[in-house]
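pasting for ref. prot 1 ->
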Amino acid sequence: MDIAHSDTYEIKLLTTAFENMTMHLREHEKMQYLLAYRDSLTELRNTTAYKVWVNDFDKEIAETKADFAVIVFDINFLKETNDHFGHDTGNKLIVTAAHIIANVFKRSPVFRIGGDEFVAVIQGADYECIEELIGKMKDHNTKAIHTGGIVIACGMSKYNGDAVVAHVFDRADQEMYQNKSDLK
C-alpha cells in the first residue's frame, strides 16, 4: 500500500520540528548553565564559577602580568541571626548582603563561595578606584553598626607577582578576618 505524501508539507513539518527542538535545546543549555554557575539563593556566580575563573586566571597570570585584586567578604553575626530568628531570616540577610556587595562592585564579578562568604574579583575600572570602593564598604559598615544593619567584613589583596590566585585570596581572607574582628 502506497502512502500519499506531499514533499513540501513534510519538509515544512520537519523544519518546524527542528526549529522547536533547537529552541528547547538552547533553553535547556541556558538552564544547565544557570544551575551549574549561579547561586540559586543570591543569583550571583557560585563556587563552581569561581573555581573556573581561578583556573583560567592562573593560566593567564603564568603567561603575563595581571592587574587585579581579590576582595573577600563575610557577614558578621549570621550564626546568631540563624540561631535566634531562623534560617529563613538568615537567608534574607545573605540575599541583602549579596545585593549590597554587588551594588558597590557593579563592574566586577562577585561570587558566593560559601554560606555567607563572597569574593569579588577587581579589574579594569574598578581596580583603578578600588580604594574608593573599599571606602564605600567601610561607610556602609559604619552606618550599619549604628543602625543595627548588616555588617559585612571585607579584606582586599592586590596581585603582586603571585604564582597563583590562591595566594592573593589567602591574603585577602586574612585581611577579612582582621576586619571582622575589628568590627565586632
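and prot 2 ->
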Amino acid sequence: MEKMLIENHLIKDQLLQVMIDNEGSDMYITVWTYPGIKIGGEIIRIDDGLEKFSAEDSQNFALSIITDDQHKKLLNDKNLDFSFAHAGRRFRVNISFQMGHYMTVLRLLTLNIPNINDLGLTDIYKDVTKLWQGLILVTGPTGSWKTTTLAAMIDYVNTNYNKHIITIEDPIEYVHPHKKSIIEHKEIWKDVPNYEVALLGAMRQNPQVILFGEMRTREEIENALRLAETGHLVFSTLHTRSAYQTITRILDSFDAEDKNQIRMQLADSLVAVFSQRLLKINDGTGVKLAKEVLFKNGAIANLIRENDLHQIPSVLQMGSREGMQLLETDIIELIENGTISQEEGLKYSNNPKLIKESIL
C-alpha cells in the first residue's frame, strides 16, 4: 500500500467509521465548519466533541488520504479524483480548493457489487446486456446512481456471459471479481493518461464489452461510437436530464457539417438510454430511483436520422410494450402510492405539467 502524506490523523478513522456505521452517502470536510455527513438526503453536522475545522484541519485530513504523487497532481490541477479502501469499504473522493483552502468530499460506495433486481430495475436492463454491440448510456445529474446502475449491468454480464470486459474510470469505484468473464479495470492517470488514449488502446485489446465513466468531449463521443460500430458493447454516462436531451447533447457536440454523419452513426449504434433521478422518500429513511427508458426501435432510429428529435418523448410514452417509459411514469406511480411527495416529484420532473394533470 502506498504511503499517505499524513499517516496518523487523529480523527480520520473515527469520521470514516461514523459514516460507515450510519450508511451515510457523502461526507464533506471544509474550513470553518464541522464535518458533515449526508444521511437520508440530509446533511448532519458531526459536532460531538469536535471543534469547527480550521484551514490546517481540512488540509491535514486531505493529506491523510493521499500520496505524494496524488498531492503533486492536486496542486497542479487544483482538483483530484480517486478512490480508496478503508475498513472493508470503498470511498470515492474529490479534493479541491475553495478560497485557497482544501475541501474534501467523500462518497461511500455500496458494500457489495449492486444487483439489477435489488436496485428495482426492469428486465430491459438485463436484455440489453445480451447484445454483442452498440452504445448503452445511463444519464442523470450527479448522485443519481449512474455508476451504481452501470456496475449492476456489468456484473450481470460478468455473471452470465464469457466475455472480455474493460472498464475505464476516473476513479475506479467498483472492483469486479472475475466470474464467467475476464474483467480488467483501468484508472485514469494511474493506468492510462486519459479516456481518449484508453479508448484507442482498448480497440487493440480485443474486449467485447467496454465501460468508460463519462462521455465529456467530442473525441470521446467519436471513439465510443466507433467502438460501438466495430463489434463492441459500450457503456457510458452523460449528465443529461432525459433521453431527448442525451441525443441532442451528443449531436450538439459536433459542427454543423459533421452532424448528419453523426446522426447516421447514432441511429445505427445507439441501443438504449436510461435517465435516472434519486427522489427522497416521504418518511426520510432513504431514496427511491425513478427512471426514463429509451430502447432504440425503428421509430427512434428514424427520428434520429430525420432530426425529428422533439417527437422522442411521445414515442417513449407509447412504447410501454417494449419497456420504454418517460421519467414521469415512475414519478407519478411513486406519488400515487405515497412513496414520495408531490413536491419532490415535481422538483425532479422534466414535465411537471404532465404530473399535475395525471394526479389531479
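The CA atoms of residues 93 and 255 lie 35 Å apart.
The longest strand covers residues 270-280.
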